[in-house]
Amino acid sequence: VQLQASGGGLVQAGGFLRLSCTASKYTFSNNGVGWFRQAPGKEREFVAAINWNGGSTYYSDSVQGRFTISRDRPKGPVYLQMNSLKSEDTAVYYCAAARSSSSATTRSLYPHWGQGTQVTVSS
Fold it and tell me: Rounded distance, CA 107 to CA 84, Å?
């Protein structure tokens, strides 16, 4: 599965962005999908995850209530709606497909990764 993340950009604090994750060559309709992010000098961290049918979602404490993960069934993109953005949300955002149909918060459970999209929030 090859994934591509898009939709990043520069936004002011308090603003919003919507990231999209699409798959090429193979569908990820039966896989859980997660979003991770990596800020300069920091480890890549979990942001949000959704299971194969959208019925289960997880969020990190830092984005809970501000970000929403969703997916278009059966073969559409996975989205990350990011509202009330803060400067600390600045990072490269990656989408990843899990081995299983479940949502997962652990990076090691995601063997398929996209190339990342830059999100910069100015204060």
Answer: 25
Task: Please give the C-alpha separations between residue 27 and each of 8, 30, 61, in angstroms, as whole numbers.
Answer: 23, 8, 30
- Distances 79 to 19, 40, 43, 94 between C-alpha atoms, Å: 6, 23, 22, 12
Share of the chain above pLDDT 70, in %: 100
* Digit-coded pLDDT (tens) for 44-78: 999 999 999 999 999 999 999 999 999 998 888 99
Sheet holding 67-71, edge to edge: 2-6, 17-24, 78-82, 67-71
Query: Could you give the residue ranges of the DSSP H alpha helices within 25-117?
Result: none
Q: Which class for 21: exposed (0-12), middle (13-18), buried (19 or more C-beta within 10 A)?
A: buried
Q: Are strands 67-71 and 78-82 parallel, antiparallel or unpaired?
A: antiparallel
Instruction: State the Cα–Cα distance between residues 27 and 50, nearest whole angstrom.
Output: 15
10 three-state secondary structure: strand
Rounded Cα distance between 123 and 110, Å, is 32
Q: What is the per-residue pLDDT for 82?
A: 98
